[in-house]
Amino acid sequence: MSDLESLERKWYVLKTISGQENKIKSYIENEIRNNGFQEHIGKVLVPIEKVIQMRKGKKIHREKVYYPGYVMIEANLEGEAVHAIKNVPGVINFLSEGKGGSAIPMRKEEVNKMLGKIDQLSESYENISIPFVIGETIKVIDGPFNGFNGTIEKINEEKRKLELSVLIFGRRTPLELNFTQIEKI
Description:
Layout: H1 3-7, E1 10-16, H2 21-35, E2 41-45, E3 48-55, E4 58-65, E5 70-75, H3 80-86, E6 91-94, H4 108-123, E7 137-140, E8 149-156, E9 161-168, E10 171-178, E11 182-184
Antiparallel strand pairs: 1-5, 1-6, 2-5, 3-4, 7-8, 7-11, 8-9, 9-10
């Protein structure tokens, strides 16, 4: 592939039916293969984040689509390729300016952020959004105080720890726990 061709590709955002992102991604990849669109279309991406959930004291690693309802595609939107992509089941349309406007390419910094985000998400589990609020009563599901309920006093987002006060033998006792050691009641 000459440099010229790769220069003409930009990243676009496809609006898709939520929940079918990965299926749509493989449909598009098949279209590309079957129709020889390789020079028009590069990567097709569904950014995912890895999430840890605690179930019955076990950590379960799940992958969650980071932008539900969107698929990113690196393409040179010439000729047939555009129609083929728009006709993929589950694809609603390209993100564009106004109704019927032409597809807007993502800005370089958005792309870098998105690609960086993907690397970052696949490396770290730290991006779990914080589902807890101060004053909330939660249940400890891990460690020596398993089964106790506590009230959240402080949340430390950087360290992903919480300070709880737990009633132990009728006395309030402060505890510091990781997010993964507690769950909502």
